[in-house]
Design a protein that fits this description.
This protein is an alpha+beta fold and 141 residues long. It is built from five helices and six strands. Bound molecules: zinc ion (2 copies).
Length: 141
């Protein structure tokens, strides 16, 4: 645990942010999460802690801007956050969204390959994109 905290602290400092206890806790939670989490879900998980929802939200935004987290809109206009380091696959990967229940799954085993193409939109060339696969999850199938 101690060693893990040191690693998280170094990661956060490495991107030029102060390693506050709330940032460490948010990053730790998201590195262990199997799916991207919304602000509400993160706040719920940390309900026993001293930090309010606004602090947690600022941490999510700050760490996204710094590249420690990736945020995606899965089509419901809710930002969901996931860590770009740790157990979670660090590369951008598609997300499977269930059209029935809204469950979201990471698909790190599928890689989105971009063929060289001059007229591709700038966001695509800069990899500022989200890849989504939609269908029924096993529970709804
Ligand atoms: Zn489903
Ligand atoms: Zn993911």
């Amino acid at each position: 645990m101690r060693q893990q905290t040191d690693e998280l602290r170094a990661l956060i400092r490495g991107v030029g942010l102060r390693a506050t206890p709330s940032r460490i806790a948010v990053l730790s939670l998201l590195r262990e999460a199997a799916q991207p989490m919304s602000h509400g879900e993160v706040a719920e998980h940390m309900a026993d802690e001293v930090w309010d929802r606004a602090t947690i939200y600022r941490n999510l935004i700050d760490m996204s801007d710094a590249g420690l987290l990736r945020r995606s809109d899965m089509g419901d206009h809710v930002w969901r956050f996931e860590a770009t380091t740790g157990n979670h696959n660090s590369k951008e990967h598609p997300h499977f969204v269930c059209t029935e229940c809204g469950t979201i799954e990471c698909l790190p085993e599928i890689e989105f390959k971009l063929q060289a193409r001059k007229r591709a939109p700038r966001a695509l060339r800069k990899r500022e994109i989200e890849v989504q696969v939609r269908g029924l999850c096993d529970n709804c199938y």
